[in-house]
Amino acid sequence: MNDEYDVVIAGAGPAGGQCARDLATRGYDVVVLETEAEDEFPRQSNKSTAGTFPSMMSAFGVPDDVVMNYTENVVLESPTDYYVRRQPGAVLEFADFKRFLVADSREDGAEYVFDAHVTEPIMEDGEPIGVRYNGSEEVYADIVIDATGPSAPIAKKLGVSDLERTNHAIGIEYELEGIEIDRQGYADLTDAMMLRLDHDLAPGGYSWIFHTGADTAKVGICYIQNESHQNYARDDFSVDDYLQHWLETDPRFADASRIEGKQHRGSAHIQMPGQLYTDRFMAIGDTVPSVDPLWGEGINKCMRSGRAAATTADACLKHGGLEPTAENLEVYETLWHRDVAPNMDSRLLMTELLYLASNERYDRLMADLSRLDDDTLARANKGDKRAILRLLEPGDLPLLAKFARQRLTSR
């Protein structure tokens, strides 16, 4: 291993791995520092539900052999109703997917250092010129990228990350076998990805069942530590308790059992992003907040941010005399808002409204979706304000007033 590179990336997740792929393909010297040991990778970081859509697969050249199951439908459930929409998708084996990114970028020349716990940036004249890891080990680079997720050790020390605890989402997922996938009275989840809006199961969030083939599925819950969670949550319940409660009370899981070793935990922040970059530095992946209300496609967002950072780095590095100052890295923010999360304000608006709604309103939402055209939900999810308005009804005025009060008090 050298100690000087064009780019050093902390974190070998989808964002860091894709950024390394793109940079290595362009011929740059790039090194990725990953906390986990290579022989166990990914173990602790095997966190994602790994649901995605064909557009991501084709855009990033993801091979079929990392797919657990191709799905045909997306399903929304409320406490007493459901809505089904035809939408091809794929549930990835997340560990295989992450290992693919490492192997593929290595073939093009990217270097990886495992068992490398990044702690801080190395500073010179007020700018990061590398990173320090494992206490005293150092590596230097023209550009430093933090892809470590919410821990964000470099971004936080550079004052770039602004992740607020009140917007922190936490989740847990099991992989189960013996599930009754097509239970009478529920939506048929054969080859489907399902999200359930139900504060009794995930107060201030959602739960999910992603079919992975036969009678197996990924099953989990996630909630945000928001006002809805405070209003609906049980004082004596942790995220683990909520998932166990669902498994014990939903008849689809009556004969189900956990698959050994298949438990995943994760977290993200649901808020507007703050600063994304500074001199010689960019934050990518879950180091930056996420705001998508439904079908968040966290993998896709991470991959897109990694690509945007690689494009930005290339724009600087391919011109030998162009220093990667904050001014010259500004294009990264433009690409991020265009390609990673366009219409941020309205998407966050829908997210906050969605989790403020009651269980009764979730039931009515299923009926509303059934009478509207199939594109309404998709457009609302992308932040189309007209589509969001179509999902509202006169009875939502108190909800909108509550939302407005929250927005005013948070400023």
From TrEMBL:
Molecular-function GO term, any one: FAD binding
From the UniProt annotation, give the residues forming the signal peptide.
none
Q: Outline the extent of the FAD-binding domain.
A: 4-308
Q: Which domain of life is it from?
A: Archaea
Q: Which InterPro entries match?
A: Dggglyphlred_Halo, FAD-bd, FAD/NAD-bd_sf, Geranylgeranyl_reductase
Classification via PANTHER family: DIGERANYLGERANYLGLYCEROPHOSPHOLIPID REDUCTASE, GERANYLGERANYL DIPHOSPHATE REDUCTASE
| Name of this protein | Digeranylgeranylglycerophospholipid reductase
UniProt organism field:
Halostagnicola kamekurae
User: What taxonomic ancestry is recorded?
Assistant: Archaea, Methanobacteriati, Methanobacteriota, Stenosarchaea group, Halobacteria
